[in-house]
């Protein structure tokens, strides 16, 4: 039975098929992404996109696309498709598509007269290698197959142009060729599982357009280089595997390798399994480091996103080892009490006030899973102490504990919380002062650290920090709570308080150690449900606010203005649900299950089989942003785990 279903009758409808994308990544940091009909609509799309740390630390598109042609007698049928100026799509190979399925691998069926070809693609798990398996399902007569590789050799954020500097020479390798267009790049090896003839016909294909970049206000035209084409004969029943890799492959093992890789995939035969399958794609494991990609296709590794997503991506599916591996990797990056929020290891940006506090929360979830608290203190106590001390004494960006025990943060022109959009050098939501979620996280970090210290009998730490939580709790309620309003302020300082209704207050209600009482928590939940809750997550701003923007669209400036001014974020739903469960226990499970199950249609809406970054604040809450986001997937997995735990532990009547 196929769980993820694509409407066959809509496949040839470009408006439908071009808005459904596939994304696959591997542990080596590579990914492949395109639309379900293999027509690239973004500059980030490509069949083999791989990290080149020695070049610039970023990912690069090597093989952009791979066009097939079926030759039957004197007739040629081109299966490829590209967009050109004036809404011209050529060769329009999508008109031959008859079916598409996702599980166990993205699979297209083409019919050309009496010929039916099955095309399956997969990214090898631990190597920079992309494989396509072609099966000739039906054919009345022998046919010829022709394949044209479209090469880019450029950074994912840039576009290539025809030039005289590209090295168009190729070298023969077993059943194929290898080529690299520019110095500093690896060779791209293109090989088949059987002998194929390569016919040199070097040419640039000009003005290929990516319409989603055009809609986003970016450059959208590209020239791609085609070195020639491969040809081979085939007949009914034949199976052929094509490999694109940064190394020379054993061509006689390609069929077997494809089958083995396919068998290692988590089947996408249920909502939960789709999420588990998607969750695995955010991990990069190499050079003795395990890191999390924040989202595909354009995000890298972000500190804040890593800690927020980590419990859902790992502990919610029972993967304790990977959780620890990520924590251990991140601890080595700690500097002056801060984790790098973004950037490369050589040029990190430590511009996040909340990432270190989310680290405590992630360690807290890990400790609850392994139930070995003294070992957790031994492993992470030193890092935890250094963060607490840095925040108490003061660190970068004016981050410092004040006499009231609360954490103040912010500088003009800097956005230090997760609401970090900046337009023309000015943060859209500066939030300078005492942010509500930062101080809720601070309180939770303090109490959790003291819990571990007491279990480990660390008397020195207890003596130094033991009295602080009481002060923080009192100050928090004085600073942020107003009974008459019935919700928590978003940001405060000594002279003014921002009572804008935003979702950050839900984090205060979701923490295991919260500075607010249950009555306050219930009131917060009521306001959040009334103004912010949608079927796709929480709005970043109440629609009642004059600054609310209900649709996320336009150029970068317009989108950044909307990013935290009404746009819906699925990751916040995890904290809403956790607060809800803490109050209502098993009586709230049915409500939360209905909420989560409502996400099932999303699996077919943008990134097939995964959950995107954001949604519009206004109904029908269209999916937007990155097509697959780590903390979105993680949130749903963790909510499922939380509700399952309540159900399992529910006392019998």
List the helices and strands and how they pair.
Elements: H1 14-17, E1 21-25, E2 31-35, E3 46-52, E4 58-72, E5 75-78, E6 82-84, E7 88-90, E8 97-101, E9 107-112, E10 115-123, E11 129-138, E12 143-155, E13 171-173, E14 176-179, E15 188-192, E16 197-209, H2 211-215, E17 221-234, E18 239-245, H3 254-263, H4 271-280, E19 283-286, E20 289-292, E21 295-296, H5 303-313, H6 320-331, E22 342-343, E23 348-349, H7 355-370, H8 373-393, E24 400-401, E25 407-408, E26 422-423, E27 426-427, E28 434-435, H9 436-455, H10 459-465, H11 468-480, E29 481-482, E30 487-488, E31 491-492, E32 497-498, H12 505-510, H13 518-531, E33 533-534, E34 537-539, H14 556-563, E35 568-569, H15 571-584, H16 589-597, E36 614-615, E37 623-624, E38 628-629, H17 630-648
Antiparallel strand pairs: 1-2, 2-3, 3-4, 4-5, 4-12, 6-7, 8-9, 9-10, 10-11, 11-18, 12-17, 13-14, 14-15, 15-18, 16-17, 19-20, 21-38, 22-23, 24-25, 26-27, 28-31, 29-30, 31-32, 33-34, 34-35, 36-37
Tally of helical segments: 17
Low-confidence blocks of residues: none
Strand content: 25-35%
Integer average pLDDT: 95
Q: What do these coordinates show?
A:
By secondary structure, the chain is α+β, with helices and mostly antiparallel strands. It has two domains: 8-263, Beta-galactosidase, Chain A, domain 5, CATH 2.70.98; 271-648, Glycosyltransferase (Alpha/alpha barrel), CATH 1.50.10.10. Helix content is 30%, strand content 27%. It is built from 17 helices and 38 strands. Strands 1, 2, 3, 4, 5, 12, 16 and 17 form an eight-stranded antiparallel β-sheet that branches. It has an eight-stranded antiparallel β-sheet with strand order 8-9-10-11-18-15-14-13, with helices on one face. It has a three-stranded antiparallel β-sheet with strand order 28-31-32. A hairpin with a 2-residue loop joins β4 (58-72) and β5. α5 (303-313) runs antiparallel to α6, α9 runs antiparallel to α10 and α16 (589-597) runs antiparallel to α17 (630-648). It is elongated and about 85 Å long. The two termini are 36 Å apart. The mean pLDDT is 95.
